[in-house]
Amino acid sequence: MTWVVVAVVVLLFVIVAYRLAAGAPYAKIFAAPHLAELAQKLDKAKAAALADLAEGGASDEDPAKAVERGAAFVTSAGIGMMYAIAKKDDAFEHHLSMSWRGGAFAKSGAATVLAFVRKVLGFGDARCTVEPADRGVFHLVASMTPAQHESFAARTASLPDERASTRLLAESLASAERTELLAMLAKN
């Protein structure tokens, strides 16, 4: 009888430890220092993508080359992003591909990160779409008119410190943009 009680206690301990460990990666993603890091890397990726466009092409080819140029990066919490800009007809498409090295990324978590990205980069009233792809990759595309693109290109990203990044995350969670992105992901 004693061994049954010990086995149940050990099993409960293992379940609780597993649950706590499973939540840890998301805690890292939404921690203030990581959000500040993400904002800084997004600003550098934006500058690299704009430079690629000015040189006559989009940076959406080999990911290794994009990392070398600064248009792609991986954060300390394992969020990978690649930023490319392409001119399509009379519009500019800002394309961000996002994945997570931690495994499957819940659509609600992805929508929250992408809403934060929209706020940091200042996409404003640009028409945005998001779609999941294979193996946990999410694609955010912001379509801009030439005037919107010119204005966007002239602005630097909002680079929040750790305290401000927490406020921006709270705004992202409550934003209509997150709700809109989540609705798009729910359809797929």
How would you describe this protein?
With 188 residues, this protein is α+β, with helices and mostly antiparallel strands. It has two domains: 1-30; 32-187, no CATH class. Helix content is 56%, strand content 19%. The protein has seven helices and five strands, in the order αααβββαββααα. A five-stranded antiparallel beta sheet has the order 1-2-3-5-4. Strand 2 and strand 3 form a beta hairpin. Helix 2 (32-54) packs across helix 6 (162-173) and helix 4 (107-121) crosses helix 6 (162-173). The longest helix has 28 residues, at 2-29. The radius of gyration is 19 Å and the shape is globular. The termini are far apart. Mean pLDDT is 81; it is low at 5-14 and 16-21.
State the gist of this model.
This protein is an alpha+beta fold and 188 residues long.
Give the helix/strand layout:
Blueprint: H1 2-29, H2 32-54, H3 63-69, E1 72-74, E2 79-88, E3 91-100, H4 107-121, E4 127-132, E5 138-144, H5 146-154, H6 162-173, H7 176-187
Antiparallel strand pairs: 1-2, 2-3, 3-5, 4-5
Key terms for this structure?
188 residues; 19% strand; 5 strands; 2 domains; alpha+beta; five-stranded antiparallel β-sheet
The strand order across the widest sheet is: 1-2-3-5-4
Number of DSSP helices?
Answer: 7
Number of domains as seen in the coordinates: 2
Oligomerization category of the chains in this entry: single chain
User: Which regions contain 5 or more consecutive residues with pLDDT less than 50?
Assistant: 5-14, 16-21
What is the straight-line distance between the termini? 51 Å
Structural class assignment:
alpha+beta
